[in-house]
Amino acid sequence: MSFITENYKLAAETLAKAFAKRGMEACYCATVQEARDQVLSMIPEGSSVTWGGSESMAEAGVFEAVCQGNYEFIDRKAASTPEEARALYGKIVCADYFLTSANAFTKDGMLVNIDGASNRVACIAHGPANVIVLVSMDKICTTVEDAVNRIRTFAAPPNALRVGAKTPCAKTGVCADCLSPDCICCQILVTRYSRVPGRIKVVLCGEKLGF
Known about the structure:
With about 210 residues, this protein is an alpha/beta fold. The chain contains 8 helices and 10 strands. The strands form 2 sheets. Strands 1-10-7-4-2-3 form a 6-stranded parallel beta sheet. A 4-stranded mixed beta sheet has the order 8-5-6-9, with helices on both faces.
């Protein structure tokens, strides 16, 4: 076991206590495979399941497993018209489980996310009965300000490339704090407390996932 792996394990124990004080549950998985299995074990068969854009969940194979499993999958991309999208969103916010990641988190147990369309941060804040957050340990930050800086420096530019956004960072690789029509940093959500105990469950992964 490497010193980094051992440190992640120790840090996760501390983080679990910090998240618990904020009404959230957290557990640690050393590998991506263990994290995938842990997420799936939290979702009873027959549950309605949906998600926001999450490279971490996709890389871990969670989305594929849900699509192939015995769940009521609500596909956010299934709508072909604005009217269908609005009706579908009504189902999404009432889902049993919402799967997502976090762009960053703080050492005292706060989740920090920045969003463009903002459907993801909306569902983290309110709506689905359960929210499962899969996030790798390399996204730990000291403060909320550090977390926002991390997201804008390391996560937003490659994510802009992924979605084909016509933003300055997609051209230069560096955040310009833009007000572009394609801006993917429209809403910043800091989840500092969950008033519904255990609604948000955080799976911390010792291997790198996402941006």
